[in-house]
């Protein structure tokens, strides 16, 4: 009789477990890899003030923003400030045609990723380090929430990425003490580039 009672209790437990699972919705399957949008990308040259090529910037559009891959060559060793400027032109030798940082009124902010007084502005990016052999590599994400930067990339005067000769201290005004503009790349949105 004891073994019969044990069998009945076990069977009752199984039924209770099945009934509690009955209310759960099955997870929908993940979309097949082939149905996901392909990641478009575009590489543009990073030109020096003398017109020489000092590397490249590759832009890749992903689900959370725009990934910038910076690859430098023949840079002076050390840290270099990198900023987004509001006009997509890079006229040598000083690259002043790129204008100032992306920083729109009335929501304009002071310069500096480490500025506690309302920074950073829309053009502020982390520094990039160049090694003794002159090479530099970095990946920087412009998140979807950085709407002003992404919108500037698609507007009619575009956007430029400017590399400076010195490090950005991320606080000093107006550009963190980063010095002269050493290199410049005209950024072109991958989606626009695909139509060329």
Provide a short characterization of the protein structure:
The protein is α+β, with helices and mostly antiparallel strands and 196 residues long. The protein has three helices and nine strands; from the N terminus they run αβββββββαββα.
Strand and helix layout:
Blueprint: H1 2-22, E1 41-48, E2 53-62, E3 65-72, E4 78-80, E5 82-85, E6 128-130, E7 136-143, H2 147-154, E8 159-164, E9 181-187, H3 190-193
* Tally of DSSP helical segments: 3
CATH superfamily: Superoxide dismutase, copper/zinc binding domain
The count of domains is: 1
Proportion of β residues? Answer: 25-35%
Order of helices and strands: HEEEEEEEHEEH
Average pLDDT rating: 79
| End-to-end Cα distance | 83 Å
Largest sheet: 7 strands, antiparallel
Indicate the CATH class. Mainly Beta
Low-confidence stretches: 4-24, 192-196
Can you tell me the CATH architecture?
Answer: Sandwich
CATH topology: Immunoglobulin-like
Describe this structure in words.
With 196 residues, this protein is of the alpha+beta class. The chain has a single domain (33-193), classed as Superoxide dismutase, copper/zinc binding domain (Immunoglobulin-like, Sandwich), CATH 2.60.40. The chain has three helices and nine strands, in the order αβββββββαββα. It has helices at 2-22, 147-154, 190-193; strands spanning 41-48, 53-62, 65-72, 78-80, 82-85, 128-130, 136-143, 159-164, 181-187. The protein has a seven-stranded antiparallel beta sheet. The longest helix has 21 residues, at 2-22. The termini are far apart. Mean pLDDT is 79; it is low at 4-24 and 192-196.
